[in-house]
Amino acid sequence: MKRILIVGSGDVARRAIPWLVRRFKVFALARQPDACASLRALGAIPVVADLDDRRELRRIAGISDAVLHFAPPPGVGHRDTRTAHLLAALASRSSLPQRIVYISTTGVYGDCGGDWVDEARPCRPSTARARRRVDAERQLRGFGRRTRARISLLRAPGIYAADRLPLARLGRGDPVLVEDEDVYTNHIHAEDLARLACMALFRARPGRAYNAVDATDMKMGDYFDFAAQCFGYSRPVRMGRSQLREVLSPMALSFMSESRRISNRRILDEFRVRLRYPTVREGFAAAHGNGSGESGCCT
């Protein structure tokens, strides 16, 4: 592999680019021209194109040996038309990518009642956004079978970092579920996810899904309590689910409707990697040390 195309040049991609440009010629798809300067500063070659416009995607055909697909699906519908447009563009030339790594979501498993979940668990998405991710995975696997491209799926949970903490929510005083109705939640630091995506280019097995999560074993309410302790906020009020329906948006409630604990054994074993932030405890401590919090500690 000599040339990498990044699709979806957001936060995780920008954390991966500095590592990638030392080893490859990196092209980065940018939806807006005003994103080009910052991508160039990182060492990538910007390509302006919109995944919702099939005509614009012609310019990416044949330019890369591998693709890191970080772009989310559209916000509506049950299909990921953006992935469909991307794959059609990649297939329009005889020079096809040898490897595609896609960041999906652990939401594809649906509600698991708090059970531990590994990659053998069937996908049973219960939200439209998760069904779009399952559709993207299906399209990518099919592309791999047709073209012999090596497809790897990284299923990621809630992504956090020093600049992606729930401080605004804590500042608003948004309530959380009472203990006996609470759900388990899963996490990965953005730096670790970027690193795992890069490692997948070399170490992921073709056609295989991986849970790209840390080892945090924590319910959602406890997670927000811990964040409040670390960064000097009051702990959120606990309410029953019926009460929360009156004060939270349907989107916020949807994240409280599924409970699962995700195993990361496969990705750690097969990628032969140790996470920089193995739980949110280490991630929050690092963020606190960078001055992201107001007071308190994470020990």
Written description of the protein model:
The chain has 299 residues and is an alpha/beta fold. It has one domain (3-164, 187-215, 261-279): Rossmann fold (3-Layer(aba) Sandwich), CATH 3.40.50.720. Helix content is 35%, strand content 18%. It contains 11 helices and 15 strands. It has helices at 11-21, 36-42, 81-90, 128-147, 167-172, 190-203, 220-231, 241-244, 250-254, 265-271, 280-289; strands at 3-7, 25-30, 45-48, 66-69, 99-105, 116-117, 150-156, 158-160, 176-177, 184-185, 187-189, 208-211, 218-219, 238-239, 261-262. The strands form 5 sheets. Strands 3-2-1-4-5-7-12 form a 7-stranded parallel beta sheet, with helices on both faces. Helix 3 links the parallel strand 4 and strand 5 (99-105). The longest helix has 20 residues, at 128-147. The protein is globular. The termini are far apart. Mean pLDDT is 94; it is low at 293-297.
Compact overview of the structure:
With 299 residues, the chain is α/β, with parallel strands linked by helices. Helices cover 35% and strands 18% of the residues.
